[in-house]
Description:
Layout: H1 9-13, H2 23-31, E1 35-38, H3 50-58, H4 73-85, E2 95-99, H5 100-112, E3 118-123, H6 128-135, E4 139-144, H7 156-160, E5 167-173, H8 185-198, E6 201-205, E7 230-235, E8 247-252, H9 255-267, H10 273-278, H11 280-284, H12 286-309, E9 324-328, H13 334-343, E10 350-353, E11 355-356, E12 370-374, H14 379-395
Parallel strand pairs: 1-10, 3-4, 3-5, 5-6, 6-7
Antiparallel strand pairs: 2-8, 7-8, 9-12, 11-12
Helix pairs in contact: 5-6, 5-9, 12-14
Amino acid sequence: MKKVPPISQRAGNMQASPLRKLASAAEDRKKKGVKVYHLNIGQPDLPTHPDFLKAVRAYKPDTVAYAPSNGLESTLDAWSIYFKRNNIDFKSEDIVVTTGGSEAIIFAMQAVCDPNDEVLVFEPFYTNYNGFASLATVKLKPVTLSIDNGFHLPSDAEIKSKITKRTKAILICNPSNPTGTIFTKQELTRLVKIAKQYNLFVLSDEVYREFSFESKHYSIMNFPEIRNQAIVLDSASKRFNICGARIGVIASKNKDVIAASLKMGMARLSVASIEQQAMLPMLKNPKKYTAPLVKEFAKRRDVVYEGLKKIKGITFSKPEGAFYIVIGLPVKDADIFAEWMIKKFQDKNETVLLAPAAGFYASKGMGKQEVRLAFMLKEKDLKRSLELIGLALEQYKG
Ligand SMILES: Cc1ncc(COP(=O)(O)O)c(C=O)c1O
């Protein structure tokens, strides 16, 4: 047999999405006629606002040309207006349009880190940070949060103990996927102080900014003392329910970071011009589009909270934002429980697909008894899903 060269270590080490692990088992179960409620994925089930689709159809250029690498001028101006409405001061020159928030995170890591530099991250965290860190050859250094205090910050000493000579940045997700936690003004003040003391960048993933149900959400840009070290990673996907449009931004007052991001942007030429154009109405009048979504997800959050209260033996806090929650289960291994639930359990021919939370942690052995739920189902289906989890836990031996 002919020898072929091996793929890179980087590619080999990259983690496949842990959320996909049980997807094929769910498909097999559906083929057997079992109804599967998906609580595992973060794709909103609601229709995209017709204004966006109308704008796509109205786009009739002679040539579908590359947009400028930093974004269409009109789109950059509209993002600046959007930020202003949210009490965040970014001019169009502080912004580079990216292919979703995903590319913004990759640009940010590559802009501030050399290979093998470290980024502090609070676990459990959005699993794709692992993939982005692999692409950027960056090491994620986890600071573990606890379900016992609703995944709020541990002590300053605990955070500082993870900082080394190679640490370049603190990455936060606020509001958080997967926990639904929103850091308070005091917590952000503490992080800002630490970042100043150790001269670190703060990469702030604020893609769920509007989904703040309990209290006011503070952006990292609301802390002027850190503005030259702060980088906002943002996205139109969830707040405007246009995940497939693939529009995000990296934004910062740090001119070197934006210049570096633009160079990376130049290398990949451009972000889709049609979608940049079609989303202009949303950026200019954001509330019209975000308010109904926020209202719907707040209602679902309440349904989940009330449903969870009826299940014996689980631990959880009321999510403050986004549309996720991590709950603790009275089982030894949530991976095995989730697999059992999708492969074996049913009640009236129905079951639930869960996302085991271990995949949201970088530390080995953490999150073993936890799962993440995403509120992507209508109220009635959410209620039934929670009932099924309760019934499954009663039957499960493990
Ligand atoms: C916390 C967080 N950041 C970033 C993203 C990236 O989304 P997109 O690339 O669609 O903007 C997501 C998507 O689920 C997310 O949950």
